[in-house]
From TrEMBL:
This is VIPR1 protein. The lineage of its organism: Eukaryota, Metazoa, Chordata, Craniata, Vertebrata. Residues 21-105, 122-372 form the G-protein coupled receptors family 2 profile domain. It comes from the Eukaryota. Keywords: Cell membrane, Disulfide bond, G-protein coupled receptor, Glycoprotein, Membrane, Receptor, Transducer, Transmembrane, Transmembrane helix. The gene is Vipr1_1. The keyword Transmembrane applies.
Length: 404
């Protein structure tokens, strides 16, 4: 039973697989002098009629097949379709396919137009979301890079986290450009190097995004547990986790698909090999959830401890509020959807992962940069210096004109 990523493609993929199997049988029969049960080739040879494969039979016998078994496309029917082998060849199917096999639901023109309008609206929404996020993330990286006082391990990790969001947004635009730029292309059977590369880059950016969120949680936990440990000691481990594990995972997935499942554009999520990508993402999400619980426990202990001053308590609150907000926000919906098959809740998945997910980069830039008190203070300080510098320049110009 076929359950493709896009339900509309399931019927095409099903018939292509059935046709390939039938043509292989025909090829083997053509290489043998006589088929079993057909002495001297007197009978009807195996035939593909575009819907079913009819095995070879002697003259006077018949074959019966059931309707194509495609989930969510054809209704289950016990009616058998028969063809007789006559001296002039195969007879016509009886009853005809269109009488025996009934579709689950035949979309009307209005339904088709509504579906097209829905996907166009979705694309506009997530395009606006990713564009807003990319602009905010680039500005945030510029702020962290320009001001020297903001150069530290914590902000370096933030920059890597921002970069993973930028890659994810760019990957979505690249995937759309490669897969959906030409409406004349059959997307169900598309299998080019460009589209596979686009999907591979997209999977890498998604993995890197989840693992850099995991790094943010790990860094926060390390900061709370090991107060006097040098932060720079762990930065290369963080980089290895954030970029290295996704790279290794995607390479294993790509090699596996090339060797064992190299069909289509690798964007089908029903293959067992999809778990090569899905399992590490779930591992990162559950790891973040455990970190979330542990950090909450540590924070509660430090806040209620009488040995810690009020200033330190406020510092701990500032350190944790952004990460504790992001961890459940990013992971909860993915865990919920992971418990159900891929074809269930497609509309909800699209809304969460495309529309709401497209604004996550903007939210990250807002929490870690634009609403960061340290960043705001540094911007105000430099803005004040710039204003004093401008006023001094104006005063010098006026003085020069007066003395002249």
């Amino acid at each position: 039973k076929v359950q493709a990523t896009h339900p509309d493609c399931s019927i095409i993929l099903y018939f292509r697989e059935q046709e390939a199997e039938c043509l292989e049988i025909i090829r083997r029969e053509s290489q043998t002098p006589a088929s079993p049960g057909l002495p001297g080739q007197q009978g009807c040879l195996t035939e593909w009629d575009g819907v079913s494969c009819w095995s070879a039979v002697p003259i006077g016998q018949s074959r019966a097949v059931a309707c194509p078994d495609i989930l969510h496309v054809f209704k289950k029917s016990k009616v058998l379709i028969r063809r007789n082998c006559t001296e002039s060849g195969w007879s016509f199917p009886s009853p005809p396919y269109y009488n025996a096999c009934e579709l689950e639901a035949i979309d009307s023109n209005n339904d088709t137009e509504a579906k097209a309008s829905y996907f166009v609206t979705m694309k506009v929404l997530y395009t606006c979301g990713y564009s807003t996020s990319l602009a905010a993330l680039l500005l945030a990286i510029g702020i962290f890079s320009c001001f020297r006082k903001l150069h530290c391990t914590r902000n370096s990790i933030h920059i890597h986290f921002f970069t993973s969001f930028i890659l994810r947004g760019a990957a979505v635009f690249i995937k759309d450009a490669v897969l959906f730029s030409d409406e004349s292309v059959d997307h169900c059977t598309m299998s080019t190097v460009n589209c596979k590369a686009a999907i591979t880059f997209f999977q890498y950016s998604v993995l890197a995004n989840f693992y850099w969120l995991l790094v943010e949680g790990m860094y926060l936990q390390t900061l709370l547990l090991l107060t006097f440990t040098s932060e720079k000691r762990y930065i290369w481990w963080y980089i290895l986790i954030g970029w290295g594990i996704p790279m290794l995972t995607v390479c294993v997935w790509a090699v596996t698909r090339l060797q064992y499942d190299n069909h289509g554009c690798w964007d089908d999520y029903t293959s067992l090999y999809w778990w090569v990508i899905k399992a590490p993402i779930l591992l990162a999400v559950f790891g973040n959830f455990l970190i979330f619980l542990n950090v909450t426990r540590i924070l509660a202990q430090k806040i209620w401890s009488p040995d810690i001053s009020k200033n330190y308590k406020q510092q701990y609150m500032r350190l944790t509020k952004s990460t504790l907000l992001l961890i459940p926000l990013f992971g909860v919906h993915y865990v919920v959807f992971a418990l159900f098959p891929e074809h269930i809740g497609v509309d909800a998945r699209l809304y969460f992962e495309l529309v709401l997910g497209s604004y996550q980069g903007f939210l990250v830039a807002l929490l870690y940069c634009f609403l960061n008190g340290e960043v705001q203070a540094e911007i105000k300080r430099n803005w004040g210096k710039w204003q004093l510098s401008m006023e001094s320049n104006v005063f010098n110009l006026v003085t020069q004109d007066f003395t002249a």
